[in-house]
Amino acid sequence: MTFLQFAYRNVFRNFRNYAAFFMASFFSVFVFFIYSMLMFHPEIESGFLGEVSIAGMVIAEIILVLFSWFFIFYSMRAFLEARSKEFAILLQLGMDRNQLGKLIIIETMTIGIFSCISGIVFGYAFSKFFFMIVREILNLTALPLYLSWEPFVLTLFVYLSAFIVISTISIIFTPDIKIRNLIRGPKFVDVVTNYSKRNAILGIVLILGGYSLALITTKSSIFTYTLLIPIFVTFGTYYFFTDTTLFIIDRLKNRKLFYWKRARMLAIAEQVHILRVNSRMFFIVTLVSTLAFLTVGVLSAMSSYTSQYDKLNPIGLIYKGVTDNPYETEHILSIIDELEDSGISYHMTRFTVVRQTSTYTSNPVEVFRETDINHLLFSYKYPLVSLTSGEAMFIPYSEDSIETLEETVVETVLKENDIHLTIDSVYPKVFFPSAIISSNAIIISDEDFTRLVNDFEMTPFVEPGYHLFTFDIPNWTETDQIGLGIQQMVARDYILNSDYTLPFYFENAGLNYSYILATYSLLTLIGILVVAVFLLASGSFVYFKIYANLDREKKQFDMLKKIGLSDKELKRLITRNLVIQFFLPWGLAFIHSAFAFYVVQTVLNDVMNLSIVKEVVFSFTLFGIIQVVYFYLIRWRYLSHVRG
User: Fold this and answer.
1) Whole-number Cα distances in Å, 169 to 21, 69, 70, 74, 134
2) What is the pLDDT of residue 614?
3) What letter would DSSP give residue 479?
4) Confidence of residue 205 (pLDDT cuts 50, 70, 90)
5) Using one digit for the tens of pLDDT, what is the confidence trace for 18-64?
């Protein structure tokens, strides 16, 4: 038998240890390859949607590469530990350390090549179905399957180089191997553990500090705390697993009534061993799981925004321009012609909005005429407004503002024209998008509006008013092809100039929604696959640690059974041990993610009055169910091995 044959057979004899590593590597290669197939597709559309797809693929590829390299490195170290006795026997039989290193590299490359080939084959087979999904998402006419060398070479280069480099580094930085230590197997960790009380307290302080910053984060302070919160939570999590958990258990051991009850002493002693040996693994699983949860949370936020887009944008088409806008007549007529040619029914309202200074706040206020507002409200079938001279009504800019303005009464004067107003009510429904009007907008009677003859005092530094055209369209998803020329002018100005320079602004809700829906659907597809890789890998970390110590655990439980431990107590003891390994890191990841989502919810509520609570709760519940099922599956397999 040659050296290569020996290495090859070692891989399949130890496939129990390699199985999780192979599946996670296979799935990473699979996802990376299908992303590469789309990224190099010769017929992918240019423009906004094409650029979004390419950008999404590149970001996903980078994340997968970085994570895969780290995962392979961690797995290699776990394999060296799990097979310590086997290495001891080989060294005892005369194999030198260079040959041992060569053996490990060959075995790693064997499983690496196998996972790369399998991932590429299955990825290419799945690419046609993936292209069909992307074609529908991006509204492409065709996205056929193709054959090109770029995706294959890129995937093989990235993953084979990862296996080569990391396996070599793992061997180089492995300490000098002592045969006596290898025969003993993994080092036993005494239940009398050493920990730093200072670090234990610091871990709690850092985590609570990160949570506190999350609770006080607002729209204005999010950029200040964006870096501080992850730093606090990351270091706090590390100290939590290395010191805080042991500190807490040490305090429990001092409670004799609790510690000496039944088999609880055995459970606590074993949990101390688990926490000490697996502290870094728990830290890694927590961070990886948190990333997975946050990815799903971001997708949930996009889902919530997509589902509530019609409420946030009730008007199909909006054209807003300064009072002397030279494009106004041409643009409005072209929009009307396109709507009529497309057979789309609409209700157009023209507003002349005047800016005045309120003596109550000394700030500008946007003034709308009662008749213009009623014209729009009539198309919505909303209650009409009826005001007398001297009366005014707030225009709500969000749902939350309605509750606030209902209890507000303002006595003010429009300074430029000396018009006294009492503002003691707010219209009960939102009928303008928040981005179109300011938060200081009111409705006054036609009689008072005709008295607005003097210009705004800040003219010409601030426009004295503007014209607003709204097109109420029952099904505005049909308008994605209306006003494309105007939309391109607006988009071009945003891209080319640091400050907006056009005298008009145009917004097509149907076109924006098609972009948002396509982007969300594509990113959801990308995110789900990336999250699946994260969760599979985080589960694999736990799997490695459990099965690497399986022989030691089996001997320990056999000894306990000989001294009188019943099957019921054994089952309870094993369950407690596995619960710690599964749910401690994932539970902490849930808490981390919950505070992160609180920050996201606060900002979204301030910016666009958007709630993601329902979506986040659903995602967390789904993840919880998956983890419970996975726990009972591993527990069943573990019990069968221990009893066998």
Assistant:
1) 18, 12, 12, 11, 39
2) 76
3) G
4) very high
5) 676 677 678 778 888 887 887 787 766 454 455 555 666 677 677 77
Q: CB within 8 A of 75, min separation 6: which ones?
A: 21, 24, 540, 544
State how far the Cα of 131 lies from the Cα of 143, in Å rounded to an integer.
6
What are the helix (H) ranges across 326-470? 328-341, 370-380, 399-406, 446-449
Task: Output the pLDDT for position 373.
Answer: 93
Find, among 634, 547, 538, the residue nearest to 71 by Cα.
Answer: 538
Ranking 29-43, 332-346, 443-457 by mean pLDDT, the lowest is 29-43
Cα 589 from Cα 294, distance rounded (Å): 10
Torsional sign, CA 45, 46, 49, 55 = positive
Q: What's the pLDDT band for 295 if we cut at 50, 70, 90?
A: confident
pTM of the model as a whole: 0.65
Look up tokens 């002349």; give the residue: 352
Scan for tokens 């507000």, then name that residue.
Answer: 408
The sheet carrying 410-414 orders its strands as: 410-414, 419-426, 391-394, 441-444, 364-369, 347-357, 465-472, 317-322, 504-508
| CB contact at 8 A, 467 and 352 | yes
Q: Is the peptide bond before 460 cis (omega within 30 degrees of 0)?
A: yes
Least Cα distance to 533 among 122, 28, 26, 67 occurs for 28
**Residue where the block lists tokens 């705390």:** 225
pLDDT of residue 371: 93
Which amino acid is located at 523 in the chain?
Answer: L
Residue 192 has pLDDT above 50, yes or no: no
Beta-carbon contacts of residue 589 (< 8 Å; ≥ 6 apart):
285, 286, 287, 289, 290, 293
Query: Minimal CA–CA distance to 68: which of 121, 37, 24?
Result: 24
> Backbone phi, then psi, for 430, in 5-degree steps?
-85, 125
Instruction: Return the amino acid letter for 617.
Output: V
| Strand ranges inside 473-592, DSSP E | 504-508
Q: Which long-range contacts (CB under 8 A, 24 or more apart) does 372-376 make?
A: 373/443, 375/349, 376/349, 376/351, 376/431, 376/470, 376/472
Q: Kindly give, in sequence order, each residue whose CB lies less than 8 Å from that of residue 121, ignoring residues fewer than 6 positions away.
A: none
Are 46 and 36 within 8 A, CB to CB?
no
Nearest to 578 by CA among 613, 509, 630: 630
Instruction: Dihedral sign for Cα 613, 614, 615, 621, please.
Output: positive
Alpha helices in 468-507 (DSSP H): 484-496
Q: Say which residue, 154 or 307, is predicted with more confidence.
A: 154
Whether 471 and 347 have beta carbons less than 8 Å apart is answered as: yes
pLDDT value of residue 189: 43
- Long-range pairs, 91-100, Cβ under 8 A, ≥24: 91/177, 91/179, 91/182, 92/179, 97/177, 99/3, 100/177
How large is the average pLDDT for residues 541-566?
Answer: 69
pLDDT in tens, 488-543: 898 888 888 878 888 999 988 888 887 777 777 767 767 777 777 777 667 666 76
d(CA 581, CA 590): 15
Which residues, including other chains, have CB under 8 Å from residue 557's CB and lie 6 or more apart? 565, 570, 573, 574, 642
